[in-house]
């Protein structure tokens, strides 16, 4: 696609299906991961929609959960600015997971509800109302194969998680990495957790991997509406507005205590130094 990712057949088909369905409803502007530019539709319509038609498409071949992410924004007077609004302007956001269940996670700005597809009846049924993410979690998710490319605050945070009861977190963590943002978000909504796709030193990853308009913004709205937090490490995701449609952004989201700890580590180099210095570690030389 325009962003340099390899497009799979199902990426293209999912994009075509969603665009066909959305052509039947009043949408002022539509943006998709699979389209270079946003498309102007019904100029009288009140909303604009941004979609990641198929998230996690590298997981298709291995039969893992994939999904669809969407963000709904108010239509501004100048439609050229439709997808340059702050994340906090979103009217609604959601995602669908295609896994053991087909689930719809939806926020209209007043909490998050989770629905399961009833295939026989052809509708989604409410499975969990007002989903809440616990403040503290015991599970983190990051692609640890990139460890050598991470900045020191991210390394320090993961080191704290790995140190478990012997580190400052004072409890053990489990680890997961699905490689589908939708599945990671669903898990966090179900049992808490923290997800990190930070920037790293690989060429092209200076702003991480995930896209602001149709991945990070909708996920941040959902996670915040469920009581969690979403940040780049330095800024709240919902305070950001995109300079370009396919702009990438570091995304750290989930249980608010762990997300706050990641922010603390980004803002305080001395803290990072103290975590990284073995002499001051919990079992170190100078610690009582
Ligand atoms: P997409 O399939 O829409 O391009 O998104 C894939 C994203 C996201 O779902 C996942 O968290 C991340 O890419 C996985 O990246 P790595 O392969 O670098 O782990
Ligand atoms: Mn995606
Ligand atoms: Mn995609």
What would you say this structure looks like, in words?
The chain is an alpha+beta fold and 288 residues long. The chain has two domains: 9-128, Fructose-1,6-Bisphosphatase, subunit A, domain 1 (Fructose-1,6-Bisphosphatase, Chain A, domain 1); 139-280, D-Maltodextrin-Binding Protein, domain 2 (3-Layer(aba) Sandwich). 25% of the residues lie in helices and 23% in strands. The chain has helices at 9-22, 152-163, 181-191, 212-225, 256-267, 269-276; strands at 29-32, 39-40, 47-55, 66-74, 92-98, 102-107, 112-118, 123-128, 139-141, 174-175, 194-197, 229-231, 251-254. The strands form two sheets. The protein has an eight-stranded mixed beta sheet with strand order 2-1-3-4-5-6-7-8. A hairpin with a 6-residue loop joins strand 1 and strand 2. The longest helix has 14 residues, at 9-22. The radius of gyration is 19 Å and the shape is globular. The N and C termini lie far apart (55 Å). 47% of the residues are buried. The model has no long low-confidence stretch (mean pLDDT 95). Residues 52, 55, 181, 215 line the site of one manganese (II) ion (MN).
Low-pLDDT segments, ≥5 res: none
Which shape, going by the Cα principal axes?
Answer: globular
CATH topology of the largest domain: D-Maltodextrin-Binding Protein, domain 2
**Residues in β-strands, percent:** 15-25%
Listed once per kind, the bound small molecules are:
2,5-anhydro-1,6-di-O-phosphono-D-glucitol, manganese (II) ion
CA radius of gyration is: 19 Å
Tally of domains: 2
| Total number of strands | 13
